[in-house]
Design brief:
It contains eight helices and five strands. The chain is α/β, with parallel strands linked by helices. Strands 2-1-3-4-5 form a five-stranded parallel β-sheet, with helices on both faces. Helix 2 crosses helix 8.
């Protein structure tokens, strides 16, 4: 495949994915976030790798554009590394949610390709379990329907995957698209 063929294939798949996004799931996310905003609750973003970067970007968008108090749990490098060193990577998100007194007025928002399992991204699973215990809403944008996020979330957009070799880049592309969609929808709805 030459460069132009690769580019055309990638962009054609991107257009196909955009058409395949479950609009009902996205609308449910807007509804839940509107409730969180009305209750003056908080949104806690979590993710690793690209999802951590998207969570940081989303915390900016949701605070600035949507007017919802948000925190990205990977933004405080000192706390993140201290908890990882002292308590282990598995509990790093759960512990921060405990420190922040996560409540039923709040929301845990996950960006992940796989969505977490007991053996892969178990830190997401522990955060999900705590959120459920505390009555917090759980949202996610993931690339697989088989992970804990897709199974346990109150609303989850599962990014369609036309090419398994591109599941990570396409999922991460659409995590940012969904971020912008939600933040701007919340801004327009509240006007």
């Amino acid at each position: 495949m030459d460069t132009r063929e690769y580019i055309a294939s990638y962009l054609d798949q991107t257009a196909e994915i955009a058409k395949g996004i479950d609009k009902d799931s996205a609308a449910k996310m807007v509804d839940i976030l509107s409730e969180i905003k009305a209750k003056k609750g908080r949104v806690f973003f979590v993710g690793v790798g690209g999802g951590a970067g998207t969570g940081s970007h989303s915390a900016n968008d949701f605070n600035k554009i949507a007017g919802i108090h948000t925190i990205c749990l990977t933004d405080n490098a000192s706390l993140l590394t201290a908890l990882t060193n002292d308590e282990g990577w598995e509990s790093v998100f759960k512990r921060q949610l405990e420190m922040q007194n996560l409540s039923g007025n709040d929301c845990l928002f996950i960006y992940s390709v796989g969505g977490g399992t007991e053996t892969l991204s178990s830190n997401l699973v522990l955060a999900i379990n705590l959120a459920k215990e505390r009555g917090a809403k759980i949202l996610g944008v993931v690339g697989k329907a088989t992970g804990v996020t897709a199974k346990e979330a109150d609303a989850c957009v599962i990014v369609p995957c036309p090419d398994p070799s591109r599941i990570t880049p396409h999922t991460e592309d659409f995590q940012m698209v969904i971020d912008h969609l939600l933040a701007n929808a919340l801004c327009q709805i509240s006007k």
